[in-house]
C-alpha cells in the first residue's frame, strides 16, 4: 500500500464512521427530507467522482504512453 | 489545448456543482404544472443535446478541414467528435424516454421532437456504417467527411425546424413558448445558475472523452507508421 492509498483509505473509513453515526432514526436530518431526494444526490455525486477518477487515470496512462513514443 | 489540464479541472468543478446544487436549488412548482421536481432533468437531459450539437459541430469543422487539406489527423478528430456526439445523443434520447414515461405517460409518444431526434441519430449511425464499410483509409476519410457535412445539415430540419412547425409536447412547438429545447420563461434565474454551468460542464466532459479517443488513435497511427 503506498502513501496515497493509505490516505484514501483513512478518508473513506472516516466517512463510513460518519454515516454509521447518522444511522439513528432521526427523521429531521437533511438526507431524509424532501422524500429522501438528497440520497439520490449523494449517489449521483459519488458516481460522477468515480467516473472522474477513471477519466483522470486513463488520461494519465495516455500521457505516459505519449512520452514513451 | 488537448493536453492542458485547467479545462479538465473546470469540467470536474462544474459537473460536481451541477450534480450537487442541481438537486438543492429551488425550482418553481406552480399548481397545474405536473413537472414538479422532474424539471431538474433540465440539468441532465437537456445538456446531452447541447453537448451533442457542439460535438457534432466540431466534427463538421474537422470534416471541412479534411476536405480542404487531407490529413489523417483531421479524419481522426472528425470521427472521434462524431462518436462522442452520437453517444451524447443516445443518452439524451434514453433519458428523454425515461422522463417522458412519467411526464407524458409513455416513453415514446411520436412527438415531432422525439421523431426528429431519432431520425437525426439514424442519419449519423449511417455515418459509422459508411466508415466501417471501407478499408481504404484515404477513401474512407474523404467519403465520410462529405457524408458528415450532409449529416450535420440534416440536424437543421430534424431538430431545429420541423419540431417548431407542429404542435409538440416539448416546449417550442406551434402555439407554445420557447425553443425546441426549453422554455426560457419557465426557468427562473436560480435554475439558470445551474443550467448554464450544466451546458458548459457536460459539453466539456464530451470534449475530454473525445480527446482521450483522439490521443489513442494518434498513438496507434504513430505505431503503425513506425512498423
The gist of it:
The complex is a heterodimer of chains A (69) and B (227). With 69 residues, chain A is mostly helical.
Descriptive tags:
heterodimer; A: 69 residues; mainly alpha; B: 227 residues
Cα(first) to Cα(last) distance of chain B is 29 Å
> Biggest sheet of chain A, in brief?
none
Distance between the termini of chain A: 30 Å
Q: How large a portion of the residues of chain A is in β-strands, by DSSP E?
A: under 5%
Uncertain spans of chain A: none
Sum up the overall morphology of chain B in one term: globular
User: Stretches of chain B where pLDDT falls below 50 for ≥5 residues?
Assistant: none
Q: Please outline the major beta sheet of chain B.
A: none
Number of strands of chain B: 0
Q: What form of chain A results from the Cα inertia axes? A: elongated
- As a whole number of angstroms, the C-alpha radius of gyration of chain B is 19 Å
Mean pLDDT of chain B: 91
Query: Biggest interface, which chains?
Result: A-B, 18 and 20 residues
Number of helices of chain B: 7
H and E string of chain B: HHHHHHH
Structural class of chain A: mainly alpha
Total count of helical runs of at least 4 residues of chain A: 2
- Which oligomerization state do the chains in this entry correspond to? heterodimer
Description:
The complex is a heterodimer of chains A (69) and B (227). With 69 residues, chain A is mostly helical. Helix content of chain A is 74%, strand content 0%. Chain A has 2 helices and no strands. Chain A has helices at residues 3-21, 37-68. Chain A is elongated and about 60 Å long. Chain A starts with a helix and ends with a helix. The mean pLDDT of chain A is 77. Chain B has 227 residues and is an all-alpha fold. Chain B is built from 7 helices and no strands. Chain B has helices at 6-24, 45-68, 72-103, 112-132, 137-153, 155-165, 189-226. The radius of gyration of chain B is 19 Å and the shape is globular. The relative contact order of chain B is 0.17. Classes of the chains: A mainly alpha (69), B mainly alpha (227).
Amino acid at each position: 500500500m503506498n502513501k496515497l492509498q493509505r490516505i484514501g483509505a483513512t478518508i473513506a473509513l472516516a466517512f463510513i464512521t460518519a454515516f454509521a453515526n447518522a444511522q439513528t432514526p432521526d427523521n429531521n436530518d437533511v438526507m431524509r427530507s424532501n422524500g429522501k431526494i438528497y440520497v439520490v444526490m449523494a449517489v449521483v455525486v459519488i458516481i460522477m467522482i468515480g467516473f472522474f477518477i477513471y477519466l483522470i487515470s486513463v488520461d494519465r496512462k495516455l500521457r505516459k504512453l505519449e512520452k514513451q513514443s | 489545448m488537448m493536453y492542458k489540464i485547467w479545462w479538465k479541472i473546470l469540467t470536474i468543478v462544474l459537473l460536481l456543482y451541477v450534480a450537487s446544487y442541481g438537486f438543492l436549488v429551488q425550482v418553481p412548482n406552480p399548481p397545474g404544472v405536473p413537472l414538479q421536481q422532474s424539471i431538474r432533468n433540465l440539468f441532465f437531459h437537456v445538456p446531452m443535446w447541447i453537448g451533442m450539437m457542439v460535438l457534432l459541430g466540431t466534427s463538421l469543422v474537422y470534416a471541412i478541414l479534411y476536405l480542404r487539406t487531407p490529413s489523417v489527423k483531421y479524419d481522426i478528430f472528425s470521427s472521434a467528435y462524431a462518436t462522442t456526439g452520437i453517444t451524447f445523443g443516445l443518452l439524451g434520447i434514453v433519458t428523454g424516454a425515461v422522463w417522458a414515461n412519467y411526464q407524458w405517460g409513455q416513453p415514446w409518444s411520436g412527438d415531432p421532437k422525439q421523431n426528429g431526434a431519432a431520425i437525426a441519430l439514424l442519419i449519423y449511425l449511417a455515418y459509422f456504417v459508411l466508415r466501417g464499410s471501407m478499408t481504404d483509409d484515404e477513401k474512407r476519410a474523404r467519403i465520410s467527411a462529405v457524408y458528415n457535412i450532409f449529416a450535420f445539415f440534416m440536424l437543421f430540419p430534424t431538430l431545429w425546424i420541423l419540431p417548431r412547425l407542429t404542435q409538440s409536447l416539448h416546449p417550442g412547438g406551434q402555439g407554445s413558448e420557447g425553443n425546441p429545447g426549453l422554455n426560457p420563461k419557465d426557468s427562473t434565474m436560480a435554475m439558470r445558475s445551474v443550467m448554464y454551468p450544466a451546458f458548459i460542464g457536460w459539453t466539456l466532459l464530451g470534449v475530454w472523452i473525445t480527446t482521450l479517443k483522439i490521443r489513442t488513435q494518434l498513438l496507434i497511427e504513430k505505431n503503425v507508421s513506425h512498423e
